[in-house]
Design a protein that fits this description.
The chain is α+β, with helices and mostly antiparallel strands. The protein contains 12 helices and 5 strands. A hairpin with a 6-residue loop joins strand 4 and strand 5.
């Protein structure tokens, strides 16, 4: 079974959707009574915080400054000791009556009750205090209004009708207009009570989710950090897998092709008296084997060049520059070396950029600069071609930008019409 989609507070989306909306409820509906019970049950809990603060003042009312400060400190201490339990009761009320699961806050909920005394600088503690001491009294007042609307509505609806119908001597018996007005007022109150209950329920649930649960900004920050770590792990795993494939191809298929090409070349040079058709087949097979070996070497180099891991980025880029049919000025200054993943990205950036220059730029020369400055590896590829490079035109720049972003790097290209074109990449390489 698929897991339910979670909302912004870690609660099931269906539950949060039901909590968010204030819908029209008939007075006799189960939802109306559920909202009423939820709101009514919150009245004593919402007032508990202030009752704890004020309970000692009902026993003793000092008049001097020092006793007042001592009593005030004792009241605050008593509230802090009860705060975790009071918060737990509020969460249980939301879950039991609304199905709203408010996650715990480890920084606030874990530990012993008196640990709250050392958490006075904790933002979680102050958010909880906002709920109990600021939002609580207003929500309790809303609950009293809801209870009063139900009680007054039912009383006016039934008592006036009962007095008029059953007790002819009642003062209302001779005034049917008053009875009608009171009954109408009672009906309106009964009809409005579900709306009031739903409104207070909505405010209470929203306040509890925001103030008694984890801070949304911190949760998003934690998720971003987790996603960044997972993405880095995936990138590293992909790089490791490419290196493994490169080794397998180099040590396996490439060696077999080399052996096959050598045997065919030997046969081509040494066999005599072979019919022309047979010799033509040998020659074609030899040429195909050499072409396949060249393609396999290019493929291996594209996966992960062995020289990059063995001798570093300078040697690997020197090999790339030597294969380009254009003058390439290469300067590499990276001390200390970056991680293998970052070096691989820098290698492929330069390789792909040089390929684009050869194919599209019509340039006379290329300048490549790779330098490390602190925790940033900057790669710059500049050519004197005709410019006008467009990343959306399918020149490989889009894939290059994605590869750079996979390690949280930045990719910029400047290519005005007429040139020059400059590709600048910055890669984080913190140790």
């Amino acid at each position: 079974m698929a897991a339910p989609e979670l909302g912004q507070y870690g609660c099931p989306m269906a539950t949060l959707s039901a909590v968010r909306h204030v819908r029209v409820r008939a007075p006799w509906s189960a939802a109306a009574w559920r909202d009423t019970v939820f709101v009514a049950s919150g009245v004593p809990l919402h007032l508990t915080g202030w009752l704890i603060l004020c309970c000692l003042w009902g026993v003793w009312t000092p008049v001097n400054v020092t006793p007042i400060l001592l009593l005030l400190g004792a009241s605050v201490l008593l509230l802090l000791l009860a705060l975790r339990r009071l918060t737990s009761w509020q969460r249980e009320r939301c879950w039991a009556m609304l199905g709203l699961d408010i996650p715990r806050m480890p920084d606030f909920d874990d530990g012993r009750p008196w640990d709250a005394l050392r958490d006075l600088r904790s933002p979680e503690l102050w958010r909880v205090l906002q709920y109990h001491l600021l939002a609580g009294p207003f929500l309790a007042a809303g609950g009293v209004v809801v209870i009063g609307a139900w009680a007054a509505g039912l009383a006016l609806t039934t008592s006036a009708t009962y007095a008029w119908a059953v007790h002819p001597g009642d003062p209302l018996a001779g005034h049917p207009q008053r009875v009608a007005v009171l009954t109408a007022v009672g009906v309106l109150l009964v009809a409005a009570a579900p709306w009031a209950a739903a409104g207070v329920r909505y405010l209470d649930a929203r306040a509890a989710a925001r103030l008694l649960g984890p801070d949304r900004a911190k949760e998003l920050e934690r998720r971003v950090e987790d996603l960044a770590e997972k993405r880095a792990s995936v990138v590293d795993a992909a790089d490791i897998e490419r290196r493994r494939i490169e080794r397998d191809l180099h040590d396996g298929a490439q060696q077999r092709l080399v052996s096959l090409a050598l045997n065919l070349g030997l046969a081509r040079e040494t066999l005599t008296g072979v019919p022309d058709d047979a010799m033509r087949v040998i020659v074609e097979a030899h040429e195909e084997a050499k072409a396949a070996l060249t393609e396999l070497r290019d493929l291996i180099r594209g996966l992960h060049p062995a020289v990059l891991e063995d001798r570093g980025l300078d040697a690997a880029l020197s090999g790339v520059a030597a294969r380009v049919p254009l003058p390439v000025r290469l300067r590499v200054d990276i001390d200390p070396r970056a991680s293998s993943t970052v070096e691989a990205v820098a290698y492929f950036v330069v390789s792909e950029a040089l390929t684009n220059v050869v194919k599209h730029a019509r340039a006379g020369e290329v300048d490549v600069r790779v330098a490390r400055s602190g925790d940033v590896l900057r790669v710059t590829v500049r050519d004197d071609g005709e410019g006008g490079a467009d990343p959306s035109a399918g020149t490989g720049l889009t894939g290059l930008a994605r590869r750079v972003r996979s390690v949280d790097g930045t990719f910029r290209i400047t290519s005005p019409a007429g040139g020059p074109t400059t590709v600048t990449v910055e890669l984080p390489c913190a140790l």
